[in-house]
Write a structure and sequence with these properties.
About 70% of the residues lie in helices and about 0% in strands. Helix 3 packs antiparallel against helix 5 and helix 4 packs across helix 5. The radius of gyration is 16 Å and the shape is flat.
C-alpha cells in the first residue's frame, strides 16, 4: 500500500485568479437580497442549472483546483477534487 505524500506548492505571491474570485464573491454578496426574495421554485431551478453547468465543467474545475494546490493531476490527492469540490457542490445543490 502506498501513500501519496505530495504536498501543495508554496505560494509567495497572490494567485492570478484571486482578483477574479474576489470580484465574483462581491457580485454574489450584492445579489444576496435577490436570492432572499426569490421564490422556492426559482431557487430550485437555479440550483439545478448550477449543478448541470458545474458537471459540464467538472474537468476544468478539477484542473484549476489541482493547479492552485500544486498537485499533479495523476496524484491520488487529485482524486479528492472530484469528490470534495465539484462532486460535493453538485450533490448539495440537487438535494
Amino acid at each position: 500500500m502506498s501513500t501519496d505524500t505530495q504536498t501543495p506548492a508554496r505560494v509567495d505571491s497572490p494567485a492570478p485568479w484571486r482578483a477574479a474570485a474576489e470580484d465574483d464573491i462581491a457580485a454574489l454578496a450584492a445579489s444576496k437580497d435577490t436570492w432572499a426574495r426569490m421564490p422556492i421554485a426559482g431557487r430550485i431551478e437555479l440550483l439545478r442549472t448550477l449543478a448541470s453547468n458545474t458537471s459540464c465543467h467538472a474537468e476544468r474545475w478539477v484542473r484549476a483546483a489541482c493547479g492552485a494546490k500544486g498537485l499533479e493531476l495523476t496524484s491520488t490527492l487529485a482524486g479528492e477534487e472530484w469528490t470534495s469540490g465539484r462532486g460535493r457542490f453538485c450533490s448539495v445543490s440537487t438535494g
